[in-house]
Predict the structure of NAD(P)/FAD-dependent oxidoreductase.
Amino acid sequence: MRKTSRIAILGAGIMGCSTAIFLARKGIEVSVFDMAEQPFSAASRWNEGKIHLGCLYSADPSLSTADRVIPGGLKFRPLIEELVGTSLAPAITSEDDLYLCHRKSVTSAAEMKTYMEKVVERVRNHPDAAQYLADASGSRVHPLSTSELAGLTSSTDIVAGFRTPERSVDTNWVAERFIPAMDAEASIQQFMKTRITAVRPAKDGIDGKWEIETSEGIFGPFDYVINSLWQGRLAIDRTAGLEPTGVWSHRYRQSLFLRTKEPVHTPCVVIATGPFGDIKNYNGRDFYLSWYSDGLRVDSSDISPPEPHLTAQNLENLPNSIFDHLQSLLPWVAQIREQAERSTIQGGWVFAVGQGVLSDRDSTLHSRSEYGIQRLGNYISVDTGKYPTAPAMARALVEAII
């Protein structure tokens, strides 16, 4: 890298902000662009916070997805603590996730068990296993007994259950620590409420400097441009001369974020594998609840997907619909519903290589191993993959640039 460098980052989510902070601490001047009012305003704030080890992807028996997400998931805690300068412990769920196999799952209970055991063997044998949200070096998959399963549900739609070492983090808590961490870095300039429209070489071709066209004018030149957008990344790639290939999907999903009046002790549950739902109990009072088909607002393979059509009626009906679906399978969800003090429906865009519907075992969305970095000279496009893989990918990208 030249002695004095300026780098532009498009997108102020977890990938963009992690990259910006790592670069700034190397003495690099960084300009971050995002159309939101502040960093961490979209999918990086409004998601379930599952720090994936691969247990969700039992429809990918090749284990390619697990092999991609495990290293990033295990490094997530130490890297986040380095980035935000404080312990992540208050944001971590206190109990291991329970996976419940739905009768209409795209994989059988036996397949799910065999798959998870292979995944968890990889986890406990990994050199970073002890660095996970909770020490996973001795982790095992524990099939729920008949009595344990009966204590969770009486529904005939749930045919098996497994305790796994996976846990989650409260993404709002993480977001609220990233914002001041960004502000504390004097080498980072933040250009918020700025929509990026194009990226082009400024001079000397793709290996020279680059400029960014935005709603607020032209910025640059920059030595490098890093495109870490989820919404609109492919369209900007095209303006840069990096033509998208293959298949992909842009999905806009909404979920329920809720705080209770009193602590409610419930497990964290994932209903798998397919278009079902999940429940995260972060600390006894802060919860995330979702039902996939209810919250899916846009599913598009367009380069520039249409904006979601969100009506007041959508927002009003969605909480009850999510509760009804979850409660029909897990009666104890009624405790969360009864104790609700305040709630909000929030969501964001998710980009994935692959297409199809999750109820189809052959959908390529059941494998999430195809993500990473593409380069065109000094223009870099980043498909983050999953929320927990972003910090490790950002660290590796910065080391490669330096």
